[in-house]
Amino acid sequence: MRLGERQVNAAQVPDLAGALRSGPFHSALRAAIVARQLPLHRVRHHLARRGVTIGLTSLSYWQQGARRPQRPESMRAVRALEEILELPEESLIRLLGPVPEAAAPKRPATRSYRSLIEASGAVERLLAELETPLDGGLHTVGHHERVRIGAHRQLQGRDSQQIVRAHRDGVDRYMAIHHGVPGCSPADVAVYAMENCRTGRVRWDDGTGVVIAELLFDARLRAGDTHMFQYGFEDGTARSATEYVRGFGSAGGQYALQVRFADDALPVRCHRFVQRSAAGPRDGRHELALSGPHRSVHMVEPQVRAGLVGIGWDWE
């Protein structure tokens, strides 16, 4: 079991099974927490690992019936609680009844920008395990990325063609980072080296969905040398994706992103955006027309700045 605690079968806990059938929500939540033998601070810890921040007071109020989850972030927490407490999907959500229109999210839950930045803690830890500094001695001259969305609206995979320049001597590898969609299984994400590199060590973090793959070059670069290589990740392990985001720690060269959709999974609208900081607003929003024959949209940043860029889409 991923979480390491003893699994409890709901059928073996009569009050839990009954509460899940008829509610109310707070009784079902309290019974599930008791059945899983998890103190509230551990529940909060598991939520935080999934990028959901909920205070202990709120959790306590929820299980006492003093408050009910309503905000989009709270509804994300309830869905995460179903996973953490090993309950059937929608078993807690349905006890809340219809979500008020003002609180209902306009798109399926996806990885928030805050959780993307928070995941950098996992990145730092994984790089430390690989004995690799955050500054790998390379900066990007050009990066062309192709993302594939599958028939079930999942992030099926992505391919990258990259040109880098060394800013110190002796660099012989690149650390490729993949952020999975919430609910993904990073242990099942595959990495493949396509051109001018080979796969080395691979590490992942279950809580954040981060995968780091070591791509080895055949020669050591000297300061000023450039290297062109191609690689990809095959994912497809999570639920519906609604955006793809690329983060840049510093200014760099050209970045081009293409998102291609399966024939029977076409969004109703797409747009590009940029975000200069984790706390800042999305800027530069621009609608993108989906090309008919190729079922794809793309964006080009001639010279990236530090921050986040990406393409988002709506399914309905």
Averaging pLDDT over every residue, what do you get? 83
Radius of gyration from CA coordinates: 22 Å
> What is the topology, as strand order, of the major beta sheet?
4-7-2-1-9-12
Distance between the termini: 36 Å
Beta percentage is 25-35%
At CATH level 3, the topology of the largest domain is Immunoglobulin-like
Characterize the overall form. globular
Number of helices: 7
Question: Class by helix and strand content?
Answer: alpha+beta
Binned, the helix content reads 10-25%
Would you count the extended β strands for me?
13
Structural domain tally = 2
Main β sheet profile: 6 strands, mixed
Structure report:
The chain has 316 residues and is an alpha+beta fold. The protein folds into two domains: 10-96, 434 Repressor (Amino-terminal Domain), CATH 1.10.260; 113-314, Sandwich (Immunoglobulin-like). Helices cover 22% and strands 35% of the residues. It has helices at residues 14-22, 25-36, 40-49, 56-64, 72-84, 113-118, 120-129; strands at 138-149, 155-166, 171-179, 190-195, 198-205, 210-221, 226-234, 243-248, 254-261, 269-275, 282-288, 296-301, 307-314. The chain has a six-stranded mixed beta sheet, with no helix packed on it. The chain has a four-stranded antiparallel beta sheet with strand order 8-13-10-11, with no helix packed on it. A hairpin with a 4-residue loop joins strand 5 (198-205) and strand 6. Helix 1 packs antiparallel against helix 2. The protein is globular, with a radius of gyration of 22 Å. The two termini are 36 Å apart. Residues 1-14 and 99-118 have low confidence and may be disordered.
